[in-house]
Amino acid sequence: MKELIFATNNAHKLGEVQALLEGAFELKTLRECGITEDIPETAETLEGNALQKARYVYERTGADCFADDTGLEVDALGGAPGVRSARYAGDAHDFAANNALLLKNLEGEENRSAHFRTVIALILGGKEYLFEGKVEGSIIDHMSGTEGFGYDPMFVPEGDMRTFAEMSADEKNAISHRGRAVAKLVEFLQTENGKVKTEN
Ligand code: IMP
User: Fold this and answer.
1) CATH topology classification for 2-199
2) Which pLDDT score is estimated for 197?
3) Which of 29, 84, 122, 156 could bridge to 66 as Cys pair (CB 3.0-4.6 Å)?
4) Rounded Cα distance, 176 and 124, in Å
């Protein structure tokens, strides 16, 4: 089976994508290919960071690989926290502190619209491809729910009354930014894999 490196050490993310690939590719983590250091994410955009991570892996392994980057983009805050979502309240990557800061920065603000956006950068056969997944919604003025992670307790996706943190993982994945970006990646990979098979 063809191998593909997913530039993550997050077993949960890896399992989710592996299941969607239905055996067309075997995913490998960074650790499995000997990359144990933190990969720099210093770009100013989600696209830039995803490409930076994928290129880092490709330069060291020469293997097909992909990387993702996600941000919460809030309209009233000019797209913040965006590419800085993980470290909005500081470098500690503290979800509670990030949520508290977002609540404070939106105090009294009527426009609560926001979206999550995931960008996946794929390097396949030396060529680069980008895939985007987005979910529109709004930021409520308190936290609700215990599922998920990050900004989930404050984000209500369009078409629902519940926050992401009040949904099951399956319900969230079916409509989420990451779920949508991964679906595009998987569709592309399955088509490419089919092409390789028929060409041989
Ligand atoms: P990453 O690029 O997937 O590591 O995401 C960067 C940051 O965005 C995370 O540290 C979270 O703060 C936030 N984030 C990403 N995905 C989600 C999500 O599905 N729900 C809530 N917050 C998220």
Assistant:
1) Maf protein (3.90.950)
2) 45
3) 122
4) 25
